[in-house]
Design a protein that fits this description.
Helix 1 runs parallel beside helix 3, helix 3 runs antiparallel to helix 4 and helix 5 packs parallel to helix 6. Helix content is about 50%, strand content about 20%. It is of the alpha+beta class.
């Protein structure tokens, strides 16, 4: 945030261009909506200071430029995928590979070793991973839950006569995905399944809040 504020302040009075270096684009791209709102609020604060300290009348143009850059590089992604086929598998795999800080998963079962390997790789590179899953499905033939837990990934399960049947995840607190897709070979190879991926903040936040609620109620593996 501080780096972005300093960058925009340095642009004041210059010839404004929306062609920016990739570092600034990447920094903005990584912000979620709450962080973007904070950035905008701080820029309005800086604009009031500049308006008080300067007399050249350029504050409005500068602020307009800042907001255009934020809008230009704001990350947005909304897409639906279907199986059978590799579209869902590849999408989840890519999301795991691109995760930078956190992965929260609430999934009924994991028997697909391809996705389990991606999670293990992410954990080794420092991504904090939490998994909530069904207590009875961890004993299924081919379940990857115990190996993932033994690798250092935090896992919690329910203790209920009913199923923990969710299938959703949150990546870096900025992307949510959900759908009918179970993390099994059959789901990608044979079943009619769907997956929705969205960066819409309000939806991501609801899934994140539900995950935290369940995490507080569930039991460590």
């Amino acid at each position: 945030m501080k780096e972005l504020i300093n960058y925009f302040k340095q642009q004041y009075g210059k010839s404004y261009s929306t062609e920016n270096d990739t570092v600034v684009a990447d920094l903005i791209n990584c912000l979620n909506r709450e962080q973007r709102d904070e950035l905008k609020s701080r820029l309005f604060h800086e604009a009031r200071i500049l308006d008080h300290e300067t007399q050249n009348g350029d504050v409005f143009n500068w602020l307009e430029y800042c907001l255009e850059i934020i809008e230009k590089y704001t990350f947005r992604f909304h897409k639906v995928y279907f199986s059978p086929g590799n579209d869902i598998l590849d999408t989840i795999s890519d999301l795991i590979k691109e995760a930078e800080s956190t992965i929260d998963l609430c999934v009924f079962t994991i028997t697909d070793s391809r996705l389990a390997r991606q999670l293990s790789d992410a954990e080794r590179r420092g991504v904090e991973i939490r998994i909530i899953t069904d207590d009875r499905k961890v004993f299924d033939h081919g379940s990857e839950i115990f190996p993932l837990s033994h690798s250092g990934i935090k896992v919690k399960i329910d203790h209920s006569q009913y199923h923990m049947h969710h299938k959703f995840g949150i990546i870096d607190q900025r992307i949510a995905f959900t759908g009918s897709f179970n993390w099994t070979y059959t789901a990608s190879k044979h079943n009619q399944e769907n997956l929705l991926v969205t960066s819409k903040f309000d939806l991501m936040k609801q899934y994140s809040e539900e995950f935290e609620r369940l995490w507080g109620e569930m039991f460590s593996l």
